């Protein structure tokens, strides 16, 4: 998440792999908390696969 402040606004930029704009929900709570939420589909797992590292999760929630 990148966050910069300009004289006109605060600008937030988030990289959320595998999420489309329509799969995300952006809200402001209590006029001060920015919530960005999204959920992507989890790939079907083969029980014979052996994972060594997983960097992506099945959902995202970012709060500021």
TrEMBL record:
PROSITE patterns reported in the protein's UniProt record = SHSP (PS01031)
Would I find Zinc-finger among this entry's keywords? Answer: no
- What residues does the SHSP domain cover? 1-64
* SUPFAM superfamilies, A to Z: HSP20-like chaperones
Top-level taxon of origin: Eukaryota
Pfam families on file: HSP20
Q: Which InterPro entries match?
A: A-crystallin/Hsp20_dom (IPR002068), HSP20-like_chaperone (IPR008978), Small_HSP (IPR031107)
Tell whether Transit peptide is among the UniProt keywords.
no
Record key words, sorted: Stress response
Q: Which residues form a coiled coil?
A: none
Family statement? Belongs to the small heat shock protein (HSP20) family.
Mind telling me what this protein is named? Answer: 17.6 kDa class I heat shock protein
């Amino acid at each position: 998440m990148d966050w910069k402040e300009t004289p006109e606004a605060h600008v937030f930029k988030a990289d959320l792999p595998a999420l489309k704009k329509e799969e995300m929900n952006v809200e402001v709570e209590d006029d001060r908390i920015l919530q960005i939420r999204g959920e992507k589909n989890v790939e079907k797992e083969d029980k014979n696969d052996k994972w060594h590292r997983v960097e992506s999760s099945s959902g995202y929630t970012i709060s500021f």
